[in-house]
Every structure is written in structure tokens, then in C-alpha cells.
Amino acid sequence: MTELVRYAALAASGHNTQPWRFRLSDGAVDILPDLTRRTPAVDPDDHHLFVSLGCAAENLRIAAAATGRPGELALGADGRSLRYSFTSGAAQPDPLFAAIPARRSSRTIYDGHPIPPSALARLRQATTAPGVAFHLLTDRPSLDRVRELVVAGNTAQMADPAFMAELKHWLRFNPRAALRQGDGLFSASSGSPVLPDGLGRLAFDRFFTAASENTRYEAQIASSAAVAVFVAERSDPAHWIAVGRACQRLMLAATGLGLRHAFVNQPVEVAALRPELAALVGEGDKRPNLVLRLGFGPTLPLSPRRSVEAVIL
After folding, report:
1. Cys-Cys with 41: which of 24, 162, 184, 292 at CB 3.0–4.6 Å?
2. Which bin fits 37, alpha (ψ -120 to 50), beta or left (φ > 0)?
3. Structure pTM?
């Protein structure tokens, strides 16, 4: 059972906060939000937190079925947690299972090569979920518009002292800090230099500017082959969890296809930009939930993870 939790905890999460807890019992695993790991500056309504919970739950479901514990995920009565109820049975081979330990965000330049139509079809198939719309943008005008929204969102966020303080709190500038904390944004996983803690914080304060980050995002999106946008039918924790489950399947499918991915969520994190993103994908007045860029590129180091014991109640 602890191995199932280990697979679940390899899921994606905002700022790599890993905001989940697991409770084990006979024939079931409860997946619960850990509100002590909130990021209120970037995620004031816990949207990303519940998306992250859905990512972990989907990893657990895939791993359990693939190792002989088939079952069903069900939303808790509170609409804010999940329970995986299972039985013993035959293992169900799933290519997504093999991708779980290999998946990681690659926040770097891709090679610009287009994604073959057969691969795009597999990505769309992997994301099918009730109450969740998935849009895959591959035409250059749409990607250019996403780039403009990302830059606008990044500029707004970096002008917010609360956002910058929160981001700095979750940065891990070297392997020692990453292993000690077991969470957060490890600099090497983002293609940034590895530095001692003190020097890293000094460099962050002095050189981490909106202009430099905007230039980096512009180049990254220009090198990407596609941008994925998820939009839930309703805006509540239950639907955000559903988005997380669909997104985790997308990332695992992309990993299995040799594709890299990275979140560029500024257009959904800055509320004023959400209507423009919704209009771009034809979703009217709905709230977009996630934005990822996809493409072929290098593999960066894995992000740190807390121990299994730390996340089991």
C-alpha cells in the first residue's frame, strides 16, 4: 500500500507543494487535501490545490489497477476529497503506469518540431473526462496569443510583493536544500543554476526580473509545438479535481510519447486574463483551469519529493 502512495505522490502540484495526505484502510485509500500547504498569493481559492489532489488521485488509480488492485475513485461527501476503493484482481497493463516515475516538468527550450497527428490523437484520447473540456492549440497565431497572455500575467504577478515572497519561499537553490525540504521548485529542474542558499536568494532578489522572465517565457513558448488548455464545466473543487485527473493523464501520455511539458498558468492565475484565454479556446464565460506547453526537448532533473511516511496519516 505504501508503494501505491509513493506512485501517487509523484504527481504534479503547484509550486511542487505536494498538498495531499493519504489515509490507508482495508480495501481503500482516502486522498485528502493538506491545507497547511496552501499558496494563497498565487492560489487564493485553492484551485491549484484541488487540481493537484486530482493529479495524485489519478496516479494512485493507475498504479493500483496496474499492480492488481482494481477499483474505483469516488468523490467524498464533502466534495473536497476522494476515496479509492479496491479489490484484489488481475493486473491491468497500462502504458501510463510506466510513465509515472519518468514524468517531470521540463521548463526549458524545446526543439520546435511539430507533434505527429497520431500523437496528438493519443493526447486527446487520454484527457477525455466528464465535465472537462480539453483544447490543444497547435497553430502559430494561437500560440502567439498564449505567449502574450503569459507575458502579461507574469508581469502582473512579479509586480505583486506577496506573490514574489511566496515564490521565493518555495524555491530550492541546490540539491541539499531540495533533499532536506523534499518539496518546492528545485532550480536545476527549471534549467537554472545551482547555488548556495544565501547566494541563490541574493541572485533572486537582484536578477529575477519581469523583463528577464518574460524573455525566457517568450523563447520557451516560441519553441513549443502545442499548448494545452483545460476548462471545467463548473468552478468548484469537485470539477477542479476532475481537471487534475485529466491533466495527469495528459502528462503521462505525453511522457510515454517522448514529449516534454511545462505549466504556463499565468493566464489562469491572473483573474483579469481568464476571459481572454476562454475566448481564445471558445469557452465563453467559463473559467480556464490549466495551461501547459508541449514539445520535444531535453530531460531535466526530477523535482524533489517528501517521504511516503510524511504524507500518510
Report:
1. 162
2. alpha
3. 0.96
